[in-house]
Amino acid sequence: MKNFAFLLAFFASVAATQDIKPPSVDAAGAVLIDMDSGRVLWEKDKDKELAMASTTKIMTAILAIEQGNLDDVVVVSKRAAAAPKVNMSLQAGEEIPLKALLYAIMLQSSNDAAVAIAEHISGDVEVFCKMMTTKAHALGATNTYFATPSGLDGDMHHSTAHDMAIIAQYALQNPTFVSIINTPSYHATSNKRSHDISNKNRLLNEYDGAFGVKTGFTNKAGHCFVGAAERGDLNLISVVFASGWGAKGKERKWIDTKNLLNYGFDNFEMVEVIGEGQPAGHIAVVRSRTPQLDLAYSHTLTLPLIKSSEDVKITPQIPTQIQAPINADTQIGYAQIHINGQHFADVPIHTTTPATRHDLKTSLEKVLKTFFSLGADEEITITLPEF
After folding, report:
1. Residues with catalytic roles
2. Where are the beta strands (DSSP E) in the chain?
3. Tens of pLDDT, residues 333-371
4. pTM of the entire predicted model
5. Could you tell me the pLDDT band of residue 16, with boundaries at 50, 70 and 90?
6. Packing angle, helices 125-139 and 161-171, rounded to 10
């Protein structure tokens, strides 16, 4: 393998990185990620398993959106109606659209609505929780286990700050989910009465560019919050678990979240590290009159990088040579991307032009085809003796 190394340095000075003040965060577990690339920009015990309270409902909602029909009418069971507060005061036998229940769980964290959704989608709360856990693991949130659809404390019910960021990153790709969580209020009607639902996410009104996501609190989890905000071309997701308890903790989760987001917007900018079609060197070709082929990167990679100091190393991994025939746009290797010495991603490398085969065997075949006036799609094959 030929190993070419290119170093892109985005820096004023190496010491400048050390001068960046970390965010003040009281939470027991916290993380800040770039929504587009998933890059972790800051963390505090991001992989520590903790109770996550009603941030659970992010998964409840996205599963219901994907698996259900928003216009479905949900019949509320006795189990759902008995769910503790926060709730909608749903009554057993009440019929209400699934869409209304989604607004209820995401805007005001209604536990009865979460149970009703789980039973409607899967027929059973426990089955729905297994679906939630399976979905989380498929997304890469492998340190998460859902025991309830509401987020109420349960045996083994836990996640990590990083896992919840991954789940939120996935959910925020869904336009219906984003529309729901950004709605200030919603008026729902069932077969028995009407429900006025108000959004309890203060970040939407208190932070420029905020567009999500979900609050949470239980006695075990403390105050939790998953936030999201956009400024310019930078989209950030923050997660804080156990920012505190009581009135102080309730306020602290907002402070922790804003401090995290401010840290990201103040210190990072989006940089195009690799552009689609950008030259990536060349490769030798054997058994062809084309001695070498030009190479290019197959797609664009844009990353959030610290404005003052970051090192990005691009190391193409390609063979020393390839053998004709080769088509254009054939992947022949990839580039390893390292940020500050840590591997982050691989970007495919492809050929930009073709190379036809040219050796004794193919030359004889071409001569014979011309001599006998064979059609373009007619084949002639020559077997040469081995020496």
Report:
1. 54, 57, 109
2. 2-3, 6-11, 29-34, 40-44, 73-75, 95-97, 185-189, 194-198, 210-218, 222-231, 234-241, 268-274, 279-286, 292-297, 301-306, 309-318, 321-323, 331-339, 342-351
3. 999 999 999 999 999 999 999 999 876 555 555 555 555
4. 0.87
5. very low
6. 90
